[in-house]
Amino acid sequence: MNVSAHIEAVYAEVCRRNPGEAEFHQAAAEVLESLAPALERHPEYADTGIVERLVEPERQLIFRVPWVDDQGAVQVNRGFRVEFNSALGPYKGGLRFHPSVNLGIVKFLGFEQIFKNALTGMAIGGGKGGADFDPKGRSDGEIMRFCQSFMTELYRHLGEHTDVPAGDIGVGGREIGYLFGQYRRITNRYESGVLTGKPVGWGGSHVRTEATGYGAVYFAQEMLATRGQNFEGRRVVVSGSGNVALYAVEKVHALGGRVVACSDSSGYLVDEDGIDLELLKQVKEVRRERVSAYAEAKRTARFSARGTVYDVACDIALPCATQNEVRCEDAVALVKNGILAVAEGANMPCTPEAVRVFREAGVLFGPGKAANAGGVATSALEMQQNAARDSWSFEQTESRLAEVMRGVHAECRTTAEAYGAGPEDYVFGANVAGFLRVARAMTAQGVI
Ligand code: NDP
Ligand code: 2IT
Q1: How far is the CA of 291 from the CAs of 44, 106, 245, 262, 264, in angstroms?
Q2: Residue 57, C-beta contacts closer than 8 angstroms, at least 6 positions apart
Q3: Which residue is catalytic, options 92, 107, 116, 128?
Q4: Is the CB of 320 under 6 A from ligand 1?
Q5: 238: β partners
């Protein structure tokens, strides 16, 4: 079978075997479309079924999560952990708590994670998990009981050498704390490295909170530098206002750019003075309110529940909310307004049609598996510190993060060129570079 027919057959089988999992099909298609040149150069990977094995998770867990709410009513959620690939190290990837979570979403995230983690050059495999639990409006007590019930099932599948979760949408330091407490209680082990994203002071790493947002901005900075440009004086739009978005805003401002808009699922906020990060953190992190509360507190800002944040003209866009939030028409609007670069802080925020629009317009485009790799890379640094019972300074950790992001950026470009594309084809470069590293390890370890 020729290489293209082989890839098409694998994709057809992914769709047949995983019916209804649209996001997983999308993520698989995007990677598979890049692989022909790599498989032509390495027929041994085709011969040993590497691609067929890569698209099938090593293990998929689905479990009941019963808990009691503040009214005394029993609630039942569904928990997931997809342990996708452990050729390079223990399964590593976040947990997402959001009502939209289902098996297909966890699989798309877990699949992306394999290549992202490989790109960092660190010893981490790929996995992802979560639950269809909606944390919005829940009390601290409800969040704690939910996390305890979730971990009461999940703990048996985890371990610092087996599977190491972290946060994602709806899971931050508070949730990681409750999850860790329950793991410690059940196992009677202080196994620091079993979860990352722990608060600083009891095993957490400096910079992990900031890492994904900072990393995405570093990645954008590297892309801009190849064209002799930078953030200085640039108008920037960031979508979302959660963990990734907040620290993307912080780093853009530190580099002399001005973030004029951000959003949440209820609408978007424009502040031409530049987003006041202290106020935004107060609204989102302390009060856990909607971004509209920012506009109520600051007169120069306006909130809109209609349209999208991408209607706001900008030089650089950092989508940091969720999958498929940047549609074709958003990309067209951004291009019309003269956008230079897009770096995905979220996982798969741009639809394939939007990516095509950026590519055809010559916009620098950093795909999530490269641009947002700073979060998981810093998780791996947290694991290193835990294993050594050590704790590094903020500066030391941030310089390691910056080094990893420079490395990921360079790897995308050199691999893209080496496999016959232009150096600016970051999508192709990221997919091929991630694939090659995993494929090498899988081949060496035999058919398992
Ligand atoms: P948070 O829960 O901290 O924030 C999520 C933000 O995105 C919120 O502003 C939320 O708005 C918005 N959002 C979520 N779902 C939707 C939706 N369906 N429609 C519109 N807006 C939505 O999550 P993170 O910041 O951690 O994660 C953001 C993205 O970054 C995700 O794609 C995640 O997978 C990715 N990522 C996260 C990493 C991390 O280290 N945390 C690492 C790498 C990638 P609202 O509050 O209204 O729901
Ligand atoms: O998508 C991601 O890379 C994350 N949510 C972070 C994973 C991690 O293990 O730190």
Answers
A1: 52, 27, 12, 8, 6
A2: 82, 83, 84, 85, 107, 110
A3: 128
A4: yes
A5: 318
What domains does the chain contain, in order, with CATH numbers? 3-54 (no CATH), 59-189 (3.40.50.10860), 211-366 (3.40.50.720)
| Other CB atoms within 10 A of residue 103 CB | 17
Task: Find the mean pLDDT for residues 79-92.
Answer: 98
pLDDT in tens, 36-50: 999 999 999 998 999
pTM over 0.70: yes
Q: Which one of 264, 266, 284, 323 would you pick to mutate in the ligand 1 pocket, going by the greatest count of ligand atoms within 8 A of its CB?
A: 264
Nearest-angstrom CA–CA distance, 105 and 103: 6
Strand, helix or coil at 312?
coil
Which residues, 6 or more positions from 37, have their beta carbon under 8 angstroms from its beta carbon? 419, 420, 432
Is residue 128 annotated as part of the catalytic site, yes or no? Answer: yes
To test the ligand 1 pocket, which listed residue (218, 237, 265) has its Cβ within 8 A of the most ligand atoms? 265
CA distance 372 to 344: 7
Q: Residue 92 carries which side chain, given as an amino acid letter?
A: K
pLDDT band at 1; cut points 50, 70, 90: confident
- Residue nearest (by alpha carbon) to ligand 2 atom 10: 376
Name, in order, each residue with C-beta under 8 angstroms of 238's C-beta and a sequence gap of 6 or more: 245, 248, 249, 252, 259, 261, 262, 275, 309, 317, 318, 320, 345
